[in-house]
Hints:
The chain is α+β, with helices and mostly antiparallel strands. It contains 6 helices and 10 strands. Strands 1, 2, 3, 4, 5, 6, 7, 8, 9 and 10 form a 10-stranded antiparallel beta sheet that branches. Strand 4 (145-152) and strand 5 (159-164) form a beta hairpin.
Amino acid sequence: MSWKYAIHNVSARVIEKRRMPLVIKEVAWRALDFTNKCRRSNPLSFALRPIFGHKHLHIAIGVIIAMTITGTALFSPVDSLAQESTGGGPIALSVLSEGEINPTTTESIKIPLKYNYISQRFWALHPGIDFATHTGEPVNPVMNGKVILVAHDTWDYGKHVIVAHANKYTSLYAHLSKIYVQEGQTVDTKTIIGEAGSTGRSTGPHLHLEIHDELDRPFNPATFLGIK
């Protein structure tokens, strides 16, 4: 797309100029980041995804739908419920027999690295969370899955891995110093997919984690991982 090439060229020139103010350079970095993540998507729809994918908007829509259904049920009762009882004696109820229950505990979701703290949270212009940590810290997948991408770019994610999961979610692990997995490899929460680092657009060692839903919309990984 011509607009992507134009943004790349202008942003690269701005970043290379030594006397350019840091604020303007930051805007240029964000423009590069946006074009890389946008890929083949329409830029307007891609920019609005975080807004329409926000959990509070979903909650508001859900409340409105629930109130509509409740109001309809109260003021328009179903005819079958309003009919007179015809008698006919007791009603036989089917009761499930008590069977033996064998509960099992499995580690389904996991924070990807042990020693960390969140240095940057999820927001409109940052579609993931950053875990500040030490270079070389082992990184695990958040869930079992299959590696669908192993890549390295200079301007954005650096060395990064994308894992697809059974629930159609995908997780991205960026700025790695080393990668230990290959595309097509099956992984679980105990697999070391790489080591934390500071490759790509990074100011220090950390892990950038993104989680996308089945429509490739990013949402807050902290909520997914149960982090407050």
